[in-house]
Every structure is written in structure tokens, then in C-alpha cells.
Specification:
Length: about 400
């Protein structure tokens, strides 16, 4: 029997988009998958020959995650490449191409709707599933409103990636891709299953989550607790593992939990959220890059045991989180997708979220201050004490 075939486009050739496109383009022999990368900035150099323009581009992944024996020095970064088709001009109505099964949206949250509008010619109504991968909340509502004819799949990932060049990306953390349906019905379920199978077939650790809205909220809670404070204070995540930070993290959880209770994502209290928040956009180097390969069935189970938010800060202690990276570089942050959205929902339901509002305003102020290149304060948690002999 012929291998099933899929056509997938990745929208956005940044850190995550390059990693995902390269992963999905690796031949597996199980699914015949064609992968297209849609970029805003052209990646084919000016003056390229016609043959170069038509040839698939090679994405190089520097793998920083190859596992090393316990106690050994991290393995030298390995490299692997995957040929991905990168169109050099927008698709024309006259292009007779088979329809896409999925468009994975790998832009920042605030660029996503405009980016999908720009890729509109690639969408087949009723067929091409939109799969937003950005962190933050509310994107599925925006996409549903702007593109009502497209199926929607919810997904989020804790893999880590850092772009090193137009077609070069470092894989900086092994994680999980969680996928689930956006709503009930067989079509939504089938679209999500197809996307999860793509990830799992490509060797990524994919997990089916039937309650993606709650996962997205919990992930946003982690970002709300760590990203804003670290960006405003100019500290590594580790600073937030200090006991002095615990009341702040608990207070932020109280605000988020109060809104979650009204947002229809299940009952939650602040203490539970503080404990539940074990998934974060963290780099976890020195773990196998292909953590699991479950075949074409859905991945199951959780990869790691839970923990508290403080433990997340310990585990990601050396990280300069994305919000801090953005303010230091003078780029817009995803503050609107995290604090902005939650505060908006809170106002809708008449819930007070003073800590979130304050952090929102402070991050906006920090953005307005422009770039900075001073050192990030290195407040690392104390090393664990050795057991008494
Ligand atoms: N990086 C990670 O490890 C990671 C992990 C999990 C989740 N995330 C989330 O994933 C999202 C993307 O993060 P990232 O780190 O990959 O950001 P990034 O490196 O800034 O990449 C974003 C990409 O989107 C492209 N883009 C913007 N507007 C576009 C448009 N209209 N058409 C086509 N492409 C467009 C940008 O193009 P240009 O190159 O032209 O600027 C850029 O390449 C964020 O929400 C982030 O929070 C990231």
C-alpha cells in the first residue's frame, strides 16, 4: 500500500518555523510529505540562477540537544539538513498545485493574522487546517473570525529553537508538541489527528490533548509569572526561583486563576495553578532530540512529572526568556498576547487583575524605553546542598 501523503506549509521562517519545517521535511518513508516554507524575507539570494530559484532550499539544524552520557561534556553540536521548498514568489491563482492539508503558523502572535492573510492563496476552503503555534492566548478566536472557511487545530510546543541565519537554526531544547481539536465534531478531530501524526511521524514528541484551551491558559500563566517580571527586572529566570519572588508568583497565579474560572477552561485555584505550571518554554539541552517516536498513533501521557512554578524557574535558571530578549533588542514583545488578553477577559467578566495590569503596563513601559545592551543580572538559585556524609 502506498504511504499516505500530506502537503504542509510552514508560515514564518524564524526560529520555530525553520525548526518545524526542517523536522517535517525529513523523509520517514511512512508519510510522503511535501513541505513548503513561506517566508516574509526572501531566503534565496538576489542574482540566483533559475535552477537555484526552483531547487528546494536546505535548512541546516544545529542540534544542541544530542544526548550525552551522564556526567559527560555535552556532545559536539551535530548538524542535519532537510530540503524544503521555499517559493520565491507568492502563489498565483493560476498555479495548479494540490491543496495544502495544513498551514502551520510560526510567526509571533501579533503577526499571525496578517501573515495568514498574505498566504491566503495557499488555503483551500474546508481543507487547509490553520495551526497557530505562537505563544499567548486569543489567536484561535482571531483566526476563526478572519478565516471562517478553514478548519482550525490547536497546538503549542515547548521545543526550543534559535535562528542563526536565513536558513540556519539551532535546536536548543527538546520538548513536546501538544495538539488537539478546536471544538467538537469529526472534522475538527480528524484535522488535529492529521497534524499530530505529522509531528510524530517526523520524530518529534507529539501528545494529543483533548483540552487544549486549558493547556494554553496554563502555559500563558507560566509566561505571565516568569516573562514579565524577568523582562522588567532584567534578570535570568533563575532570579524568580528566589524565595523573595514566591509571593509575587503566587499573586500572579491568583489573578490568572480568577480569570480562568470565568473563561470556561475548567475550575482552577491559584495554588493548583502554581503546582500545575510545569510546562514552560524552556531550553532543556542535553536531552535526546528524538525523545520518542510513537509511530502514527497518537503520543500519550505527559513527558515529565509536574512541579511548581518555582521549580520551573530553577530548571530554566540560565534562560533569558523571549520577552526579555525582545525588550533588550528593542523588538515588540508578546505582552498583548499574554497580559493584554487576560486583562481584557478579566474586564469582560468583571474580575480584578491588579498584578497582571501592573505587569502589562511595566512591560509596555520597558518596550518604550528602547533597546539596551547592559548585562542581564545573574541571579541564579543556590546550588542544591550536598547530603551530609
Ligand atoms: N523560538 C522558540 O523556541 C519557540 C518555542 C515555542 C514557541 N515559540 C513561539 O513561536 C512564535 C514564533 O517564535 P520565533 O522565536 O520563531 O520568532 P521569530 O524568530 O521572530 O520568527 C517569527 C517569523 O515570523 C515571520 N513573519 C512575520 N510576519 C510574517 C508574514 N507576514 N509572513 C511571513 N512570515 C512572517 C518573521 O519574518 P522575518 O524573518 O521577515 O522577520 C520571522 O521569521 C512566538 O509566538 C513564540 O513565542 C517559540
Amino acid at each position: 500500500m502506498a504511504a499516505p501523503s500530506r502537503r504542509v506549509a510552514v508560515l514564518g521562517g524564524g526560529s520555530l518555523g525553520l525548526l518545524v519545517a526542517a523536522a517535517l521535511a525529513r523523509p520517514t518513508g511512512r508519510i510522503a510529505r511535501q513541505v513548503v516554507l513561506l517566508t516574509r524575507t526572501p531566503v534565496v539570494p538576489a542574482g540566483a540562477t533559475a535552477a537555484e530559484l526552483l531547487a528546494p532550499a536546505e535548512i541546516t539544524v544545529e542540534d544542541r540537544c544530542t544526548s550525552a552520557a551522564p556526567g559527560a561534556a555535552p556532545a559536539a553540536a551535530a548538524s542535519w539538513t532537510a530540503p524544503v521548498h521555499v517559493p520565491v514568489r507568492p502563489r498565483q491563482a493560476s498555479d495548479a498545485l494540490p491543496p495544502l492539508d495544513a498551514l502551520l503558523v510560526a510567526t509571533k502572535h501579533y503577526d499571525a493574522v496578517r501573515a495568514v492573510q498574505g498566504a491566503h492563496a495557499w488555503l483551500t476552503p474546508g481543507r487547509t487546517a490553520l495551526v497557530p503555534l505562537a505563544n499567548g492566548l486569543g489567536l484561535e478566536e482571531q483566526l476563526r473570525t478572519a478565516f471562517p472557511a478553514q478548519p482550525l487545530v490547536l497546538a503549542t510546543t515547548t521545543y526550543g529553537a534559535a535562528r542563526r541565519g536565513p536558513l540556519r537554526v539551532a535546536h536548543t531544547g527538546v520538548g513536546t508538541v501538544y495538539v488537539g481539536p478546536a471544538g467538537g465534531g469529526r472534522a475538527a478531530h480528524a484535522a488535529a489527528e492529521g497534524v499530530l501524526n505529522d509531528f510524530v511521524d517526523a520524530g518529534l514528541h507529539g501528545v494529543w490533548d483533548p483540552n487544549m484551551p486549558r493547556r494554553l491558559w496554563t502555559k500563558a500563566a507560566v509566561s505571565a509569572c516568569l516573562n514579565g517580571p524577568a523582562a522588567v527586572l532584567n534578570v535570568h529566570n533563575g532570579a524568580l526561583a528566589s524565595p523573595a519572588a514566591t509571593p509575587l508568583l503566587r499573586a500572579i497565579c491568583e489573578d490568572v486563576a480568577a480569570v480562568m474560572a470565568h473563561a470556561g477552561v475548567g475550575p482552577v485555584d491559584a495554588a493548583q495553578l502554581f503546582r500545575e505550571a510545569h510546562e514552560v518554554q524552556s531550553s532543556r539541552p542535553r536531552e535526546p532530540c528524538v525523545a520518542r517516536r510513537d509511530g502514527l498513533t497518537n503520543g500519550t501521557g505527559e513527558p515529565r512529572a509536574g512541579g511548581t512554578l518555582t521549580q520551573v524557574a530553577v530548571r530554566t535558571a540560565p534562560n533569558i526568556n523571549s520577552m526579555l530578549q525582545d525588550v533588550r533588542a528593542g523588538r515588540p514583545t508578546e505582552v498583548g498576547a499574554i497580559y493584554g488578553y487576560i486583562v481584557q477577559q478579566a474586564a469582560k467578566h468583571g474580575v480584578a487583575t491588579p498584578r497582571l495590569q501592573l505587569l502589562h503596563d511595566l512591560v509596555r513601559l520597558r518596550e518604550a524605553c528602547g533597546p539596551s545592551d547592559g548585562p542581564v543580572l545573574d541571579v541564579l538559585p543556590p546550588p542544591p546542598t550536598a547530603p551530609a556524609a
